[in-house]
Design goal:
two-stranded antiparallel sheet, nine-stranded mixed β-sheet
Length: about 300
């Protein structure tokens, strides 16, 4: 490691909620010499999944339900995206702790599967993070390897909040965004959101019993997330990521599903010292079905 140049000054938006009087660059990290060896993901295991729900209080459905891919009829014409879009919906809806849904989904999913032992022995997890953090770090390293700075249109600097867990080993990386959602500018509008809506099924609302006159309350899923544990090089990672859709409607015969639960069973559950509630609802989806949808410009 070497000291950072005095000219280095993070953008003020990255210093929000930090004690600026004690915030100063510590050091820069030099990239080690490349090693000619394989670096592949091993021992991949999905431990949990959930939907964030549209609710005034933090609420998730476990294991949740993804959107289903529906092959569109071509040609497909779309309007540009408009309105608000989420940048970090977990942080927007779970402001006390954006990582809590991750751990709650693992705990409840494993209980549903009948696993009584913890799938997360403290001594075996090195890093807990969102996929977004890994993508930012990967882009930074790749740009430095190629001796090129990140393009001006890309975020050239970013912040990731790091905390060491009480076990003294596990590093918790919390995603940071100065904006949790933003209004799409007409000049920068893409087609990603409208493409997803045009090619996937809508989320099915979840009904729960209530003391209101109607006798039930409706919650609408807004996004679907999965949590996986795997080994990369010498690190054991626990990673959360959003899934846009699944390739086909999973067969109920091969999966554990909770859609058949009666309305009386779909109650809102909470945990001590937490404002996050959860509902058991959805389907455990195999990893080989998940999809990420991307749109881009094509020059003819």
């Amino acid at each position: 490691m070497q000291p950072l140049p005095k000219s280095f000054s993070p953008a003020s938006k990255l210093l929000r909620d930090l004690d600026v009087s004690t915030t100063h660059p510590l050091a820069s990290i030099l990239l080690p010499d490349p090693v000619d060896t394989d670096c592949e993901i091993r021992d991949y295991q999905v431990l949990g999944s959930y939907n964030l729900l549209d609710s005034r209080t933090p609420m998730i459905a476990i294991p949740g339900q993804p959107r289903i891919w529906q092959e569109p009829n071509l040609p497909l014409q779309l309007s540009p995206d408009c309105g608000f879009t989420f940048i970090d919906q977990n942080a927007w809806r779970c402001q006390e702790s954006s990582l809590e849904p991750l751990f709650r989904s693992i705990s409840v999913t494993q209980q549903l599967l009948g696993n009584t032992s913890s799938p997360l022995p403290e001594q075996q997890i090195d890093v807990v993070t969102d996929r977004n953090n890994l993508r930012k770090l990967n882009a930074m390293v790749r740009s430095m390897r190629s001796n090129e700075m990140l393009a001006p249109s890309k975020r050239r600097e970013f912040r990731i909040d790091a905390q060491l867990a009480p076990n003294g080993r596990t590093l918790l990386l919390t995603r940071y965004s100065d904006q949790l959602r933003q209004m799409i500018s007409p000049d920068d509008a893409g087609y990603g959101t409208n493409f997803e809506h045009a090619t996937t099924s809508k989320y099915t609302p979840i009904l729960t019993p209530t003391h209101e006159q109607s006798g039930r309350k409706k919650f609408t899923p807004t996004s679907y997330h999965r949590v996986a544990k795997y080994r990369l090089a010498d690190l054991n990672l626990l990673v959360r990521y959003e899934v846009d859709a699944v390739q086909q409607a999973p067969s109920v015969d091969n999966l554990l599903t909770f859609e058949q639960l009666s309305l009386e069973q779909k109650t809102i559950e909470t945990r001590k010292h937490s404002t996050l509630g959860h509902i058991v609802s959805g389907t455990l989806v195999p990893q080989d079905c998940v999809m990420e949808l991307k749109t881009g410009k094509l020059k003819w």
